[in-house]
């Protein structure tokens, strides 16, 4: 579970550092100016230079409106929703692995605790209570597995929540900038 969790954490860090680093929280003034001047191709190129989810959705709305001659706001809005759903898949990739590691690790630790206690009680049943070393071995196994499960689960849970918050912020940016773009077309 530790390896699974570490893989998911590193993959998500790399994704957010490389793809979502320059996300827009509002429609850039350069893009507004290009759209205002009717330079849709240039606006598409402008958004294509940034690989963030928000740029991708905005670019796809403009491409759809430009190539398909779909100028109705409802058609553009639907295209934006469609592309946003595609981007959410990329944002949430491997989050299930992080959740799995965070939730299964304590259970595996608990399983080790139970087997360690079984070992301890079996040693008491076979050897009596006179040898503390045999008893300590089982209790030690129980404590190590509990600690191991928590050692994996706690960082995984922290990073799971951190990445979920990042995803929420990106989705909010997508919604805000798409609405702003569509409102700009309404003017």
UniProtKB/TrEMBL annotation:
<dbReference type="InterPro" id="IPR050790">
    <property type="entry name" value="ExbB/TolQ_transport"/>
</dbReference>
<keyword id="KW-0653">Protein transport</keyword>
<feature type="transmembrane region" description="Helical">
    <location>
        <begin position="96"/>
        <end position="122"/>
    </location>
</feature>
<keyword id="KW-1133">Transmembrane helix</keyword>
<feature type="domain" description="MotA/TolQ/ExbB proton channel">
    <location>
        <begin position="60"/>
        <end position="175"/>
    </location>
</feature>
<comment type="similarity">
    <text>Belongs to the exbB/tolQ family.</text>
</comment>
<keyword id="KW-1003">Cell membrane</keyword>
<dbReference type="GO" id="GO:0005886">
    <property type="term" value="C:plasma membrane"/>
</dbReference>
<dbReference type="GO" id="GO:0017038">
    <property type="term" value="P:protein import"/>
</dbReference>
<keyword id="KW-0813">Transport</keyword>
<dbReference type="InterPro" id="IPR002898">
    <property type="entry name" value="MotA_ExbB_proton_chnl"/>
</dbReference>
<keyword id="KW-0472">Membrane</keyword>
<protein>
    <submittedName>
        <fullName>Biopolymer transporter ExbB</fullName>
    </submittedName>
</protein>
<dbReference type="Pfam" id="PF01618">
    <property type="entry name" value="MotA_ExbB"/>
</dbReference>
<feature type="transmembrane region" description="Helical">
    <location>
        <begin position="142"/>
        <end position="163"/>
    </location>
</feature>
<keyword id="KW-0812">Transmembrane</keyword>
């Amino acid at each position: 579970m530790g390896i699974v969790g570490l893989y998911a954490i590193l993959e998500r860090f790399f994704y957010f550092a490389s793809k979502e680093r320059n996300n827009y929280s509002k429609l850039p003034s350069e893009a507004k100016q290009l759209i205002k001047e009717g330079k849709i191709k240039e606006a598409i190129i402008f958004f294509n230079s940034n690989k963030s989810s928000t740029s991708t959705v905005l670019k796809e709305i403009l491409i759809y409106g430009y190539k398909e001659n779909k100028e109705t706001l409802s058609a553009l809005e639907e295209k934006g929703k469609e592309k946003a759903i595609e981007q959410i898949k990329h944002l949430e990739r491997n989050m299930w692995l992080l959740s799995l590691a965070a939730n299964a690790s304590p259970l595996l630790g608990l399983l080790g605790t139970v087997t360690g206690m079984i070992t301890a009680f079996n040693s008491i049943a076979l050897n009596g209570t006179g040898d503390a070393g045999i008893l300590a071995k089982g209790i030690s196994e129980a404590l190590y597995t509990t600690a191991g499960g928590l050692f994996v689960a706690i960082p995984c849970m922290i990073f799971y929540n951190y990445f979920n918050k990042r995803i929420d912020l990106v989705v909010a940016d997508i919604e805000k900038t798409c609405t702003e773009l569509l409102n700009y077309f309404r003017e």
